[in-house]
Structures are given as structure tokens and as C-alpha cells.
Amino acid sequence: MENIFKQEMAQNSSKDGVVPREGKDISTEYFNTHRDFFETYARGGVKVEPAPVGLDTFAFNLEKNTIYVNDMFYREGRGFSDEKTAFAVCHEVEHFFEKKMMLTEKGGGEYFSKYLEKIGKSRAYGLLDNCVADIRENRSVVEKTGKEFRNTEEKMYREDLFPSADFRDAPLHIQFAQAILRERRLPDEQCLVADEVRAKLDALDGIVNKNKVKLLDAMTGTNVPMSLRLKLLDQYVVPMMEELKKKDLENEKEKSKERGESGDKKEGGEEQAGAPKDGEGELDPNEVFKEAYERAEKGTLGSVPHEAEEATFKEWQKGEKENSVETRDKEYAESLGVSEKALDDYRAINKTLQNVINPETNQSVVDDLRELFRRIIAKRKKKWIVPKYPLEEGDTLDDPVGAYVEGMRGNFKPKVWEEQEIKEIRGNKCGEVEISFVCDGSGSMNDGGGLKRKEQQRAMVLAMEALKDFNDMVDEESGSLTEPIDIKTEVYKFQGEQSDSEPLKQMGRELSEKDRITVCGELSSTPGSTTDFVPLETINIQLPDESLGKIRDGELKKIVIVLTDGESDDSRRVKDTIASLREKGVVVVGLGITSAGGAVLETYAPNALVVEDAKDLPRMLGELLEDHLKEL
């Protein structure tokens, strides 16, 4: 990237490194001259545009994701060459990247608002934050460009920002902030500061992590989020600065006493800036050190006034309010083709699933299933490798150091190789699984305030989420699997209507968000009767010969799980269909919901169980899935 800019400089620069221009819109001309470089640097993460007429600083537009560049802020205001100006522009782009990313974090808007409030209240905090942030921004610019820009940065700090390394004339807390920045970017030159300041700088350098990385180096890493850096700043660095500022204020009070009895007059009777008024006893550091802050701020590359940043943030907040969570959810639901209520209901149910605990493992059933899925995938990722003794030739170099030593001795056939023999350990691992869920839509599911209906919804959400996770995990590892695994699902609901033979979700591998929300929504209504035989007969009739062959050959495991809270309207038809399915190798399980569903113990025998408490239904369905999938 640095070559792009170097070429532009060679083509456009005069001897002093400044591109000569005339006319009104010289800022636009500068930007257009180096547009390719800035756009390449931004890499599409942010739009970079020339500042509009009338804007004499840089500016951010969070809504349009745009930074407006006014090079004259640096060229005329600081006397920078074009190379230094380009570095400063990239520096501002980095500031924008950081702030934009923080606003995308959860609670980012609130945190950013508090951050702006701190800067508005305390110029000391603003200066310290800017000095520490500048370290990070400059590191990022150099990483993305190269050595030439690092040289440009060093010249800029030595010639323009900090031509002197002696900060002893400044208040202690300002010395502290300035020395942090200069010593990090010009590490071969130690700043001259007061002893108290040096003690704080040494203490700060003494804070290291377990890898012996200094706090300042860690918190200004280019991959560290701004939100984390600010937390570390507040926890470790700000207290040091506040101690020094307190001492500065005490020194000012002493000076005030020396100037007169009241301590609020300068020579000629003029009131001292920041002096306490009647009834007040504290100095205002923003006023007392106003001139010192103004001098110190010239050592940073800050170009966006605090007031402008606040205004930009308010515009962003306004846009966020207009595009609120409710608005986004409504639009998202429409894009899925479901109602906003169905989306909200599904999310609410899904949030409760981590509370479904397996008492045997003392962790959530969801986590149990994920662990099982990881084990299933792990068994299919590799075959066992059995090494033999070192040989003169082989598949892999077992001892590279030995090979080097033997070669130096003139032995070019050392026994440093090993051959690998593949031994396959086979288990009962079907490549395909089909699971048919048959859910109860009978009116009795509404008894007791609809608890059984609600728990059936939760159970199915748990099952669908778990099986979706499994297929996602398989997709991630697909390239390393020696034996594929595929789980397909379908969902039926019986309620004594013609639709009983039509699945709510067709048999297939995909469990899209729309599928899951639709199934959950359909199970919120249970107005019918117990016609469980209809979906069972449909599954039996539609079982193709190809699937039957795979079941016989052990390539396909087919499972039917029926959830019901009462006796079937035609138990004989159910038993006949179950017998037919089991004869074909299909696993059929009946899950009775509360004691009212006790009939399953006879109708679905021997693969049947009753969940006495409806609240245990999600856990039992999860454990049932685990039992039937653990041998894969």
C-alpha cells in the first residue's frame, strides 16, 4: 500500500513534499489526487469523501458510514507535508473504524454516550484518552502500510507534534499523558518529566499480563476493541492521572494563596480563571489548566471537535431510534414470511432452553446434546494410525534432527522414517438418520391452563434447535469427515382434520428459522382430537423402497417419536401401523404427556414412557434423542 502513495508523491510533489494547488476547493483537489490511496486504505470499511464547502475540520457521519477529509486542517493548521497529512488522514480513519465498531457492540450506544460525557466533563480525561488511543491508531496505520509510513510518523512526532521531549513546564497530569504517547511512538527517547510523573510511568510499565506483555502494549493492540481499551484505561491509567491532577490542583491552590489572601485575583484585580467562588472550595481543572490543555492537544492528531462528535452521535441515535429493535424485528419477520408475534414467541421459548437441566450431568440438555454431537463427529473425522519402528524409507519423517545429524556423518539412509498403517475400527455408524416427530393437537392439551401445550412447544423447539446445531457442526467439519452423517427431520401434528396427513415441516435436512418458527406457531393451537394414526399411516405408506433397503443395510436409521396426552381415537389402527413400521426396521417411540397419556405404555409398547410432570417434557425429549443417536 505504501507504494501507491509513494508513486503519487513522486508524481505530484514539489521539493518540499507539498503538492502546489490554487483555487477555492484545494481540499477536494488534494483528496482527488490521492483518492486511490485513501479508498484502498479504507478497504470498503468506511467511505472516505472530501469535506464539503464550509467544513474546516474532519467530520464523521455514522449514519452514512462516511469520514469527510479536510487536508487543510493539517496542511495549514499544522504545516504538514502531503506525506504527513496522508498519515494523519489514515489515523482519523482508524479512529472512525474503532468508534463505529463500538457502536455495533451490545450496549455500545450507551457506552459511547458515557464516553462522550466523560470527555465533555474532563479535558484531562479527553487528553489522556486521545494520547492512548493515538498509540493504537498509529500502530494500525503502520501495520497496514509499512516502513515508509513509520518513518513519516517518526518525523511528524519529532518535527511537528513533540519537537521537544522536555515536558517539565506542563502540569504533572499533562506530562503523564504526553509522555505515554511520545515514549511509545519514539521509544528510543525518554521524556524529561517530574520525578512524580516518572514514578507513575514506571508503575504503569510494571503492569504486565501472564505473558509478560505490558498493559499499555496489550491495550493498544490493533485487535483490541475500543470498549475494552477504555475499561482498562479507567481501571489502571486514569487513577494514576487523577492522583497527579489532584497534586496539580493542590499546587495551584498554594500559588493562589501566594497571590493574595482570597486566592481569586490576578495582578490588577482580575479574577483568576477556575478560582472557587464564594461558598465553593474546589478549583475547576478545565479552567485552571485551560491554556496547558490547549498546548498539549497540539501534540495529538485530534481533528474532530468534541461538540461535532456529540452532534454526530445524536444524529446516529436518532437514526437508531427510527430503526429500533422493534422496527428491525418487524422487517426481519416479514423477510422470513412469519408474523412478528410468532418470531417473538419463538425467541422467548428458545431463551428458556438453557434452563432445561439434566439432573444426571447437572448441565443443560442442550449442552449434553452438543457434546454428544461433537463425539459423533469426532468418531467420523479420523481413522486410527498405528506407527511402526523407524525405517530407512517411509511415509513421514519421524526424527528430522536425526536425519540432519546422520546426513552430516555421511549416512544418507538413516532409520528416521516411519510407515503408517490405517486400521479402521467400525461401529454402528449409520450415514443417514430420519426423524419424524408426531405432535398432539388435541383439545385436552389445553387442560390446566395449557401447560401441556406450552411444554410440547418447548420440547419441539429444543429438538429442532439441537438438530439444526448438529447439521451446522457437520457442515463445518465436512471436509475432514471420512464417513458422512446426515440427519433429516419432519414434523406432523394430529388434530382430527384433513391436514393431519400433511407435515408442518417436510422431511429434509434443512431446519430453517422459518421452519422452526412455523412449527412452534402451529403447536400453539390444539383444538382437535387424538387422531395419531393418520400421520403414522402416512409415514408408513410413504416410506420408499430405497429407504427400506438402506434400513436393512444399516445405512439409514429411521425414528418416529409420537407425543400424546391421551388414548388414541383408534388404538387398533395405531398398533397395526406401529407393527408394520417396526417390521420394516423403523424405531417407533411413544411419549405420554402426564398420567393422562398413560395409554402409550400399552399402545406403543415396548418403546414407550410417560412423563408425569409436563414441565419435564423438554428434558425427556432431549434425553430420548440422545439415547437414539449416541450409537451413530
From TrEMBL:
Residues 247-285 are annotated as: Disordered. Pfam families: VWA. Residues 247-269 have a biased composition (Basic and acidic residues). It comes from the Bacteria. InterPro entries: VWF_A (IPR002035), vWFA_dom_sf (IPR036465). Residues 434-629 form the VWFA domain. SUPFAM superfamilies: vWA-like. This is VWFA domain-containing protein. It comes from Candidatus Yonathbacteria bacterium RIFCSPLOWO2_01_FULL_47_33b.
